[in-house]
Amino acid sequence: MKPTLNFWNMAIVSALVVFGLGSVQPQTHAAVLPTAITENTCDSNRSVHVSGAAVVYVTPDRALLQLGVQSNGITPDTVRSINARDIQKVVRAIVDLGVQAKDIATDYYIVYPVYEDFSSLVIKGYRIDNTVSITLRDVNLVDEVIIAALKVGANEVQDLQFYSSELRKYRDQARELAMKAAG
Which of 25, 156, 153 is CA-nearest to residue 85? Predict the structure, then answer.
């Protein structure tokens, strides 16, 4: 009887252990948080985009003018002499209108050969393109400067840009207005 009793005792104890372990729930001490907080708070599928635009219109107080003298000659020395003479006349005429010499600078200077035709390597002469940039602190001088330069030898008006000397100030104003528009 003892071996049977031991068998049944072991079977009952095993059953209690199996059933007992299945009913025991582990205890946690963490607080239950709302679903929104426990999810990934940096979800890239959720975003807010805000944009704003602003334009600030400004009357320009400066002009940047590029005038050029293009010269041709048989030899490099000849074309250089011709171009130097003509560009000096242009600079003198601009200075005579009250533009300071510090506001006139060579912007582009190139010497290149001129060929007889497109398929030939026979050089028939040389060409110099010489461009000066002029900063005009009085935009009312633009017409006078162009006409005076053309009269004394300039043969290219390459670019004219008007701008404000206080660009940073006006960009900051536009940025501030754009932020208000976005808000």
Answer: 153
